[in-house]
Amino acid sequence: MKIKNICCLGAGYVGGPTMSVIALKCPEIKVTVVDLNESRIAAWNDEDLDKLPVYEPGLAEVVEEARGRNLFFSTEVDSAIEAADMIFIAVNTPTKNYGEGKGMAADLKFVELCARQIARIAKNDKIIVEKSTLPVRTAETLQTILDHTGNGVKFEVLSNPEFLAEGTAINDLLHADRVLIGGKQTESGKKAIQALVDVYAHWLSPKQILTTNVWSSELSKLTANAFLAQRISSINALSALCEATEADVDEVASAIGTDSRIGPKFLKASVGFGGSCFQKDILNLVYLCRYFNLPEVANYWEQIIILNDYQKYRFAKKIISSLFNTVSGKKITFLGWAFKKDTNDTRESAAIYVAEHLIEDGAEIHVYDPKVSEEKVKADMSYLWELKGFTEQKIESKLKQIFVYNSAEDALHKAHAVAVLTEWDEFKTYNWNSIFINMYKPAFIFDGRNILDAEELTAIGFQVKGIGKGYIPQLKREPVF
Predict the structure, then answer these.
(1) Region class of 305: left (phi > 0), else alpha (psi between -120 and 50), else beta
(2) Which of 289, 272, 256, 240 has the alpha carbon at shortest distance from 105?
(3) Which helix (H) or strand (E) holds 192?
(4) CB 104 within 8 Å of CB 287
(5) Could you report the per-residue pLDDT of 136-185, keeping only the tens digit for each?
(6) Which of 57, 122, 129, 274 could form a disulfide with 348 if both were Cys (CB 3.0 to 4.6 A apart)?
(7) Strand blocks (E) in 55-178
(8) How far apart, in whole angstroms, are the C-alpha atoms of residue 196 and residue 181?
(9) 7 catalytic, yes or no?
(10) Collapsed DSSP state (helix, strand, coil) of residue 345
């Protein structure tokens, strides 16, 4: 089957960039990205490419070349579904915050709504591609809905999980380690798999395109993220021990990373991982293990989340204890709010939870992030407090402790302490001498990403506290045997 028309349901961090690259590399295929969010679609269509709703290095250039040629963004969902040969589902699948599986299971209501809408609209056979992160056997659920509520048309459901890292998504799409496509091992299933293989084959080699059964594909996505998060939590656990023993976590990471069996990637200690996938996927994995009565396996994977939460709390506690056990009324400047550099995505960002701990202790949080707006920062905190059952009045009161700036200079002026929460490269280029002069003394820097030159900052006069940096001159420790 030769694909001529693709529709993608969902114009977010996955659907927008993925479809843009497919359109760029497959000029003969019409690609339409649809979303019910009118403002989001308007942003994708804005002539000012700086206003795209997703910030990714290289994305604007891809959109500029393909948009209007064979890449289109629209709110006309029904017509796009009807015209498409292949439909990607890239809608949000958050962790449930209600009912059965609350706090762990994926909420599939948006995916189910997509399936029912496709079944209602479709007049001819279609290939449905799971692009959202989904629990194992979701394809079976989709197939059941489509087969029983459709108009007699045939649907083939494929699993094509995304393995994008935000901040490098365009490069990840253009130069993928692998593309994974899972489908039924029937004659029609194999034809559907080949149709999607042919799309990616426009720019990727056969060895980069892996095909499996649908269940293996779905589980591979969850476990890939779980393994990566496991490495981060492992090095972060060691960072606490490094601080207690006066070891240096970067030196430890370098030493173990040179072992070819381990490798150096994802061994960078930090204030904790964030983003839309790691926590959600691990919780989903935990839920599946408990559902299938594997409590020991569930507990193993859940510990990764527990450690990640502990790392954020530990960082906030270090700020409070260093500032003489009170931050009430003190100006704490956050450099960075996004969960990582080169993205404007703030989902599950460590900054949100560190801010929460400090605000509870009375701190004023002053935020500068080059890509995150005041509206987004306050929306993140409001959502967190809503989930905790806070009243509207209490949320409004707490929001008065948050200030967001368009310039780092204003955010840093007269601060009691600086906390680096995102590893934006620009933070390393600041005139820290001038910043020191205008801060309250002693001037503290808490480097949650270990990106700043601690020796240089110490020479200026800063009290520098990094992650996993255990040397504290004023303390003499006895050896532990």
Answers:
(1) alpha
(2) 289
(3) helix 187-200
(4) yes
(5) 677 888 888 888 876 788 999 999 998 888 899 999 999 999 999 999 99
(6) 274
(7) 71-74, 86-89, 126-130, 155-159
(8) 8
(9) no
(10) coil
Distance CA 150, CA 331 (A): 58
Contact 296, 256 (CB under 8 A): no
Residue type, position 287, single letter: Y
Residue of 419, 272, 249, 252 lying closest to 331 (CA atoms): 419
Q: What is d(CA 344, CA 337) in angstroms, rounded to the nearest whole number? A: 9
The number of beta carbons lying within 10 Å of the beta carbon of residue 48 is 8
Q: What is the DSSP pairing of strand 444-447 with strand 5-9?
A: unpaired
One-letter amino acid of 385: W
Q: At what angle do helices 295-322 and 350-360 cross, to 10 degrees?
A: 50
Q: What is the pLDDT of residues 281-308, one digit of tens each?
A: 899 899 889 989 999 999 999 999 999 9
* End-to-end Cα separation, the chain, in angstroms: 68
Residue 331, both tokens: 């100006």
Active-site residue identified among 8, 26, 277, 289? 277
